[in-house]
Amino acid sequence: MDIVEKVRSGQRLSLEDGLALYDLDVLTLGQLADEKRKALHGNKSYFNINRHINPTNICVDVCKFCAYAANRKNPNPYTMSHEEILEVVRDVVSRGIKEVHIVSAHNKEVGLDWYLDMFKTIKAEFPDLHIKALTAAEVHFLATTYDLTYDQILDKMIENGVDSMPGGGAEIFDEKLRDTICKGKVNSKEWLEIHELWHKKGMKSNATMLFGHIESREHRVDHMLRLRDVQDKHEGFNCFIPLVYQLENNYLKVPNQISGQEVLKTMAVSRLMLENINNLKAYWVTSTVNLALVSQEFGANDLDGTIEKESINSAAGAKSAHGIDLQKFVGLIKNAGYTPVERDSLYNELKVW
């Protein structure tokens, strides 16, 4: 049975199958992924009205791909006060935003309570606002810095108002590559363990993969399979988000941007390998808006959201610093031939535009 027949027969795919998918021509691969997308989501394209907040860029880690953390490439350290953060939240809530996505650097200077009180302060004033916060890398940093277990940190997050976890810090799970690009940060086993513990508590999270740097296709498929194994246990991942590596202002020194065709192939392979994660996000921040829109024909059913302000990827060259206008976003989705569906953070449908 060839790989096309195997996909269409609904069989679970192996590492070798994933590599065989990459060897298909891009249009055949796209058609397979589009068939799967349409079977799950029809013509719907999901987004949410959200705001990213990055409260500090002071970090104990030095990841070679990072342009956000304060270092020689970015000599502008900052830490926001809780009142400054709350002013941002008040502003965005007044304009109808339903989710804040809070990801920071690993800052030893502020203390554990700075992180937790941030969430408690927001939740006290806005109990209905969804707080998506703290990557597994941040959880690992807080647990190891303050001599607590992952379980203890996760329980404190829930107690202080965190509703779901973002998928950052996964990068690429191969440990040899991690030693090169982010040595000292949470390792792959720990990242997966943290998310599984979170899922056991009945909570949801996302999962990411950073690609287009020094990894191979095999590394990408291996990454997907490890996520699939965790998803089999508790179905806790809302969404898979392949993140396109950004070239500027970091120490990894990748000479050329990954091609658009390779991005589209990776989206399609993700859709077909991860049959147990329903939502595949084309994160326009890293892929560009245009390529994200095309990715809808290669398996993606989610485009993230309006974002408003983004500091991490824009520091590395992404054109995302000021988000995207809601009406423009909706118009682009419609012009691409899809039905824009506003969702909440857990993929409940709120409004069909």
Structural commentary:
- The chain has helices at about 5-10, 15-25, 25-40, 80-95, 110-125, 135-145, 150-160, 175-180, 190-200, 215-235, 260-275, 285, 290-295, 325-335; strands at about 45-50, 50-55, 100, 130-135, 165, 205-210, 235-245, 280, 300-305, 340-345, 350.
- The protein is an alpha/beta fold.
- It has a single domain, classed as Aldolase class I (TIM Barrel), CATH 3.20.20.
- Strands 9-1-10-11 form a four-stranded mixed sheet, covered by helices on one side. A four-stranded parallel sheet has the order 5-6-7-8. A three-stranded parallel sheet has the order 2-3-4, covered by helices on one side.
- Helix 3 (about 25-40) packs across helix 11 (about 260-275), helix 6 crosses helix 9 (about 190-200) and helix 10 (about 215-235) runs parallel beside helix 11.
- The radius of gyration is 19 Å and the shape is globular.
- Mean pLDDT is about 90; it is low at about 310-320.
SSE topology:
Elements: H1 3-8, H2 15-23, H3 26-41, E1 44-48, E2 50-53, H4 82-94, E3 99-102, H5 112-125, E4 130-133, H6 136-145, H7 150-159, E5 164-165, H8 175-181, H9 188-200, E6 204-211, H10 217-234, E7 237-244, H11 260-273, E8 279-280, H12 284-287, H13 289-295, E9 302-305, H14 326-335, E10 339-343, E11 349-352
Parallel strand pairs: 1-9, 1-10, 2-3, 3-4, 5-6, 6-7, 7-8
Antiparallel strand pairs: 10-11
Helix pairs in contact: 2-10, 3-11, 4-5, 6-7, 6-9, 9-10, 10-11
